[in-house]
Amino acid sequence: SELIRGFLLSGMPCPSSCPPGLLALMAPGLALMATFSLPSQAGDRRALPVEKPPGVKGRTLILLDVNTKSPVRIISENFLSLQLDPSIIHDGWLDFLRWLPSHAAPTLDGQSWSPPSLDKALASLRFVRNRNPVLCMSGSVVPGGLAISLFSFPFAVDIVRSDIALDKQKGCKIAQHPDIMLELQREKAAQMHLVLLKEQFSNTYSNLTLTARSLDKLYNFADCSGLHLIFALNALRRNPNNSWNSSNALSLLKYSASKKYNISWELGNEPNNYRTLIGRSVNGSQLGKDYTQLRSLLQLIRTYSRAHLYGPNIGRPRKNVIAFLEGFMKVAGGTVDAVTWQHYYIDGRVAKVTDFLKTRLLDTLSDQIRKIQKVVNTYTPGKKIWLEGVGMTSAGGMNNLSDSYAAGFLWLNTLGLLASQGIDVVVRHSFLDHGHNHLVDQNFNPLPDYWLSLLYKRLIGPKVLAIHVAGLQRKPRPGRVIRDKLRIYAHCTSYHNHNYVRGSITLYIINLHRSRKKIKLAGTLRDKIVHQYLLQPYGKDGLHSKLVQLNGQPLAMVDDGTLPELKPRPLRAGRTLVIPPLTMSFYVVKNVNALACRYR
After folding, report:
1. Average pLDDT over the chain, rounded to whole?
2. Among 194, 363, 375, CA closest to 284
3. Cα–Cα distance between 1 and 260 in angstroms, integer?
4. CA atoms within 13 A of residue 82's CA, in its CB half-sphere
5. Residue 424 and residue 76: Cα distance in Å, rounded?
6. 498 exposed, middle or buried (CB, 10 Å; 0-12, 13-18, 19+)?
7. Most CB contacts within 10 A, which of 34, 138, 363, 487?
8. Distance CA 289, CA 246 (A)
9. Residue 529: how many CA atoms within 13 Å on its side-chain side?
10. Alpha carbons 406 and 362: distance in angstroms, whole number
11. pLDDT digits over 376-417, tens only?
12. 291-305 exposure pattern, b = at least 16 Cβ within 10 A, e = fewer
């Protein structure tokens, strides 16, 4: 139940380090990703009422305009974040973390940035093992569990081939490993993958030990890469009266403070599931008292007297979980800096490719957002809310499905719904782990959601804009709701992308129809030059494909340290946008000079 999260803060200078797949999303054009809802009312998920233009019959043309005067939402610059599974400690990948110096690798704007990873566009890196009940600490720290999150700045890190020097006074250095060690590590990781899957399906978990040296490696890796760590302390250590036993946490806090580690904190993970995991439950009010106790401990240590604290990291907000959150907010709503919860759409063991095309499934998140917001706003109006763990499927996902092109429909729509409804940060599960929800495979080759996230970060800014749509749409039968299969979101283009002047607007569109759709830009967007970034599956596997093409060109790493150039396809001014069936796409409308987008 412990985790490590990392957030990339856009707009910060890019240091000379960052993790590989992580860096790509963190490139200079990185910005928070935000989306807006189809209707002019942000957050409304209902189908847009559209009228048939007089005298027109059988047309499929959709007219689209955007309100450019003011944003409907402004999201955190850290909006898009990532998660790493602590199994990298278990399977040995931690020893292969690599700090990379900044060298010239092409970015979207033609400038240079630290080698590929998630690019400045990715907002965070989270280290989490959702189902392991105890993450133990050994070595110079008293044994006990913790979880770690990484708040990242725009840098790159290659987590494949080397270790980070621990002597910070001599600077960050790379300790090279022979290729044979990398091959042996891959074999070890593959074996551990089977062990972890067996644990997951049997619902029995072994403890994970994090030594003091491992903690030092992890922190130095983060520090050299410009990441900010967030540790989730073990909440399962309990006194006889069921209150939290903080003795181990205090030892960890003192150790980290002695090393002057800059860390933010959490306590536990999915506390509503503790009875299932350890046979002992903790209610919301008790966890609230535990958080108050943790805040008091932090204030006793000068290094952490003003440290950020996040929680309670609850699971899907069903009725009992909402009651848990209410109890927590009554006691500790003012103690945490942001309220956190997690969401997984479907059981990865039974998922089918058609599941990812169901609009009803896409809309389930919107209902959950409103439930969480209602509770939070009742007790602490205006408090930030984070979706701190999100995956397309639970139970580790399914090969050739949750890591395929089809899963991108859920992921991109998730980003749109969260931004449009005011969720400040989202942490994607996962960058790399033992399952199939990750962004890169075991050889660190980018998967479809990686490319999707990278484009999002490079093109999408934090300001969410309202859109106005008119066109033809079938009428609902009595008692039935039409859920949109064509989903459109709009933002100011990322300020970090110097290919586009301020005032430009980026649209991103999901077409779940099995036919193409035509969109005509109107109003302030009319007769503007547009750059198209169309993502489609590549190869014979179709929606099951793990490969994608951008504007007809396959996407792949140039080499281990270089991302391909993501070239747009220019469309002439006034041209109708033709959206192919079952695709995702981004469109930058240039030189709109939108008032909402001129200034940060």
Report:
1. 75
2. 375
3. 26
4. 39
5. 5
6. middle
7. 34
8. 12
9. 8
10. 13
11. 999 999 999 999 888 766 655 566 677 899 999 999 999 999
12. bebbbebbeeeebbe
pLDDT tens-digit readout, 44-100: 333 333 344 444 343 468 999 999 999 999 998 888 887 766 666 665 666 665 543
Cis peptide bond prior to 430, omega within 30° of 0: yes
Token pair of 121 as six digits: 């566009």
Query: Residue 168's CB: how many other CB atoms inside 10 A?
Result: 15
Contacts of residue 358, defined as CB under 8 A and 6 or more positions apart, other chains included, come to none
Q: Which of 179, 376, 395 is nearest to 284 (CA)?
A: 376
CB 1 within 8 A of CB 122: no
Largest CA distance in the chain: 79
**Separation CA 22–CA 563 (nearest Å):** 12
List, in order, residues 6 or more apart from 382 with CB less than 8 Å away: none
Alpha-carbon distance of 335 to 309, in angstroms, equals 8
φ, ψ for residue 89 (rounded to 5)?
-75, -45
Four-residue CA torsion sign, 117, 174, 3, 348:
positive
CA angle 487, 532, 486 (to 5 degrees): 15
Integer Cα distance of 231 and 149 in angstroms: 6
Structure tokens at 484: 């949109």
Q: Give the residue from 132, 105, 142 showing the smallest Cα distance to 27.
A: 105
Asked if residue 583 lies in contact with residue 125, where contact means CB atoms within 8 angstroms, the answer is no
Tell me the angle at which helices 407-420 and 364-379 cross, rounded to the nearest 10 degrees.
30
Contact indicator for 586, 506 with CB cutoff of 8 Å: yes
**CATH classification (class only), 61-71+465-597:** mainly beta
CA 145, CA 1: separation in Å to the nearest integer? Answer: 9
**The pair of three-digit structure tokens given for residue 580, joined into one six-digit string:** 């192919």
**What's the sign of the alpha-carbon dihedral 412, 418, 421, 422?**
negative
Q: At what angle do helices 319-332 and 284-300 cross, to 10 degrees?
A: 40
194 exposed, middle or buried (CB, 10 Å; 0-12, 13-18, 19+)? Answer: exposed
pTM: 0.80
Token pair recorded at residue 14: 């890019």
C-alpha triplet 146, 151, 157: angle, nearest 5°: 100
Give the residue from 374, 384, 406 showing the smallest Cα distance to 393. Answer: 406
Length of the chain measured in residues: 600
Retrieve residue 424's tokens.
């400040």
- CA-CA distance, 454 to 499, in Å (whole number)? 16
Asked if 137 and 212 count as a contact pair (C-beta separation under 8 A), the reply is yes
Kindly list the distances between the CA atom of residue 341 and the CA atoms of 27, 250, 272, 316, in Å, as whole numbers in the listed order. 28, 25, 11, 7
- Residue 480: band (very low, low, confident or very high) from pLDDT cuts 50, 70, 90: low
